[in-house]
Amino acid sequence: MQQFKVSGMSCGHCSRAVTQAIQALEPTARVEVDLAAGLVRVETSLEAERIEAAIREEGYQVEPA
């Protein structure tokens, strides 16, 4: 499972936006968002760079955790 530190997430909408952006690339990806910790965990075959790009496109800052 890959883990990313994401800045700027604060609500359920943020969580859904990040989840949907990742699942648009791979519909079967399992995404867990921890708003309090600012972490996103993803179980997927996608490369980290593609996941980071999808999260950035939603307007959030992201880095590997």
TrEMBL record:
<dbReference type="InterPro" id="IPR036163">
    <property type="entry name" value="HMA_dom_sf"/>
</dbReference>
<keyword id="KW-0479">Metal-binding</keyword>
<dbReference type="Pfam" id="PF00403">
    <property type="entry name" value="HMA"/>
</dbReference>
<dbReference type="InterPro" id="IPR017969">
    <property type="entry name" value="Heavy-metal-associated_CS"/>
</dbReference>
<protein>
    <submittedName>
        <fullName>Copper chaperone</fullName>
    </submittedName>
</protein>
<dbReference type="GO" id="GO:0046872">
    <property type="term" value="F:metal ion binding"/>
</dbReference>
<dbReference type="InterPro" id="IPR006121">
    <property type="entry name" value="HMA_dom"/>
</dbReference>
<feature type="domain" description="HMA">
    <location>
        <begin position="1"/>
        <end position="63"/>
    </location>
</feature>
